[in-house]
Amino acid sequence: MGEAISLQEVIKIIRKRLLLIISLVVISVGISIGISFYLLTPIYQAQTQILVNQQSSLSDAYSWQSIETDLRLINTYNVIITNTAILTPVIEELKLDVTPEELSKQISVSNESDSKVVNISVLDPDPSRAVEISNTISEVFKERVSELMRVDNISILSEAKLSDNPIPVRPNKILNIFIAAVFGLMLGVSIVILLEILDTTIKSEKDIEEHYGLPVIGIVGLIVEKKEKKISLKSRSVRRSEND
């Protein structure tokens, strides 16, 4: 086989070893299902929203300076929320068996651009505990921020609630299965093409021309004896045995 493989040759190779490719896809999907459903711990998310409402006079309520101040204040709040000053009281109140550093890894704080709403998201294997942590963080932050920054401009916009049938955010089982199927397909195609490239046996006259650079001037087909000839030879051997 030459160094370059045409698209038609690839299609032929795939058709010839289609069973191997399908087997690898099935194996990859099976492994993904086993890991996603039985090995990986499901992680649930709870989210609380707080509102940063800076008190200002009506004359400058919508001024650019007021908006800039609010945004800078929110950026500061985002850092304070995951600080030990907030997380330590949360751990003590809920009696969590984690350190503030470990708990901070479960928390993400975000806000939309030019928005005074701050989202506090908590990830945890226990959906009810995720709700408790998220709500407790918002409550503790609201109480402690007045002491830390001497302001009173935080209000809880919406609390996290536990649904009847909580759905984990991780692992994404459907996505994992899809990725496994694509991986198995790519692996299968790569293997069959590699096997074909490494196979140096002569299969056709085209292979002779490519390997040895010799033109093929003729092809000898299979010689098949006729049935009548076989029968005549068999009858002769029987007669000879009778004469003997």
UniProtKB/TrEMBL annotation:
Q: Which Pfam families match?
A: GNVR (PF13807), Wzz (PF02706)
Membrane disposition = Multi-pass membrane protein
Q: What positions does the domain Polysaccharide chain length determinant N-terminal occupy?
A: 4-94
Q: Where are the transmembrane segments?
A: 18-40, 174-198
Q: Which InterPro entries match?
A: Bact_polysacc_biosynth/exp (IPR050445), GNVR (IPR032807), LPS_length_determ_N (IPR003856)
Q: Keywords on this record?
A: Cell membrane, Membrane, Transmembrane, Transmembrane helix
Residue stretches making up the Tyrosine-protein kinase G-rich domain: 142-194
Q: Where in the cell is it found?
A: Cell membrane
The similarity annotation says: Belongs to the CpsC/CapA family.
Q: What is this protein called?
A: Wzz/FepE/Etk N-terminal domain-containing protein
Higher taxonomy: Bacteria, Bacillati, Bacillota, Bacilli, Bacillales
